[in-house]
Amino acid sequence: MSNSLQPHGLQHIKPPSSKRRVPVSQPGMADPHQLFDDTSSAQSQSYGAQRVPGGLGYPAASASPQGAFLADPVSNMAMAYGSSLAAQGKELVDKNIDRFIPVTKLKYYFAVDTMYVGKKLGLLIFPYLHQDWEVQYQQDTPVAPRFDVNAPDLYIPAMAFITYVLVAGLALGTQDRFSPDLLGLQASSALAWLTLEVLAILLSLYLVTVNTDLSTIDLVAFLGYKYVGMIGGVLMGLLFGKIGYYLVLGWCCVSIFVFMIRTLRLKILAEAAAEGIPVRGARNQLRMYLTMAVAAAQPLLMYWLTFHLVR
């Protein structure tokens, strides 16, 4: 029908459009269909504020916490104070460490070289032809062991003790008797006997009133030389049985006895001669007995600490 046929008063009604218009929210008003507040706009604004001008849109690298910490004057003052305290503590330890651990003296006993070690081992095994047993001095100070074969050292005793423990473990292993506890008992027993020796000698020197320059470290060095003969005896026992063990250990026992007599008599009896004590005096006789006792104890301990390792 044409429009002329429609009743009067009725106007043409436009069919609804298929597209729905979404209401535009006013600035500052929240979306009525949104469940939570949108805070991304504030973050995007702050993010955009950090962009580097003229860059590619990446945010500028913020200052690192370390840089901020170092830039703080209070932190710098605290670091300087801590460094000062550390320096003072190190200086205090360096000054007082010699009161408990004689580091300076220990350096002297480890001042050795290959030639000294070879000569000293030869002297321990065959001391019979050696004539000059005097320790050399330079301005009232004994020269370093590498310059004098008669000077005591701690390198050979320390290495000999470690080697003795390893050889003992080897001997126990060949007999199917090895265990960590037994090896630890072997090492601790050797150290305990060495400690008892040192304490007994120091007590004897005090009771006999011997004024000698024989220090505790010297005693440890001289008493530690017996481990060299113990190693040789156990190795020969592993290779040739009990016959090899007794032959080599017997030779080393006699050698260490002669070595200790000729070494200690210069440390103990020489002081008596310097003091003007008669050779046949009672005090001098006690010093001779003490020297003989220390030398005789070495072969006994060598046998005691090794006889059970050879079967």
UniProtKB/TrEMBL annotation:
Membrane topology: Multi-pass membrane protein
Pfam families: YIF1 (PF03878)
Annotated spans, Disordered: 1-50
Biased composition (Polar residues): 37-48
Entry keyword Electron transport: no
Subcellular location: Endoplasmic reticulum membrane; Golgi apparatus membrane
Keyword Protein transport: yes
The organism's place on the tree of life at top rank: Eukaryota
Transmembrane segments: 154-173, 185-207, 219-239, 245-265, 286-305
GO BP terms in the entry: endoplasmic reticulum to Golgi vesicle-mediated transport; protein transport
Endpoints of the signal sequence: none
Keyword terms: Endoplasmic reticulum, Golgi apparatus, Membrane, Protein transport, Transmembrane, Transmembrane helix, Transport
One annotated Gene Ontology cellular component of this protein: Golgi membrane
Job description of the protein: Has a role in transport between endoplasmic reticulum and Golgi.
Family: Belongs to the YIF1 family.
Protein name: Protein YIF1
